[in-house]
Amino acid sequence: MLKGIAGRTAIVTGAAGGIGSATCRRLHAEGANIVAVDLDQAGLDALVAELGDRIVAVRADVTNPEQTEAFFDTAVSTFGSVDMFHANAGVESTVVPVANFDIADWQKVFNVNVLSAFLGASAAVRRMATQPDGGKIVFTASIAGLKGDPGVSVYVASKHAVIGLMRSLMKETGALGIRVNVVAPGPVETRMMRPLEEGLAALMGTDAAGFQAALSTAIPLARYAEADEIAATAAWLLSDEVPYMHGEVVTVGGGLYP
Ligand SMILES: NC(=O)c1ccc[n+]([C@@H]2O[C@H](COP(=O)([O-])OP(=O)(O)OC[C@H]3O[C@@H](n4cnc5c(N)ncnc54)[C@H](O)[C@@H]3O)[C@@H](O)[C@H]2O)c1
Fold first, then answer.
1. Is the dihedral of CA 97, 103, 211, 213 positive or negative?
2. pTM for the full predicted model
3. What is the total count of domains within the chain?
4. Is residue 233, in this structure, part of any structural domain at all?
5. How far apart are CA 41 and CA 44, in angstroms?
């Protein structure tokens, strides 16, 4: 068992998706209370049915300030505190060169990937700062937050922004007892990779299967990650196992980076 998770309360956004649901499962198995946040009601219902007790699902849009405050209030009114926050909800961009980028796509990606991280961080810090044990925040960025690739500049820029937010936030919160870190996955076996594979394959004149095979070959561990491998790292950072880790970008990429 990871130290410092049992009996504490975690908010996880994107909880109906691949990595978010895996983090909910892992933190729940470690004994945490879970507030699972997503737009996907059916996915949330399935997660609640699976986990049973110590979980509350909130259908909310993480880009909305009032809804964000409301799911933080739900955590405190239901379980008494917010000790861990996994800011994980995110969307992929369409695959397109910068010369043809689409403003509507930029706004959607930056709202979901960046604005939501600011809203959630702000709500978390205001609550955690008043708690005797402070708290922990983990953002899901990406290896795309550390390097660029053609065709995915909007997604890449959004994940660089998440890392920039974390690097400023951690300097504000260290003295408040709030540890802040980023988990930065490489390719993970979730829904999100499918449209990216299709778009990048088209850009490179191959098909999605060919692109997936080529990308897997480029990864030293020769495969995509499973979502629970990212969840394990997020849970570790949210636990008391690593009390001196603060301001870190922990890549989980099977050797893809650097
Ligand atoms: N899959 C990968 O290869 C990969 C790699 C690196 C980083 N990531 C990041 O991991 C995180 C999770 O992605 P995933 O792979 O689990 O994808 P996913 O599509 O399975 O999950 C994303 C979840 O976010 C939810 N969501 C989207 N917009 C929302 C909104 N406005 N409000 C509330 N919920 C919203 C979706 O409903 C979905 O359940 C994302 O931030 C993503 O950028 C994924």
1. positive
2. 0.99
3. 1
4. yes
5. 5
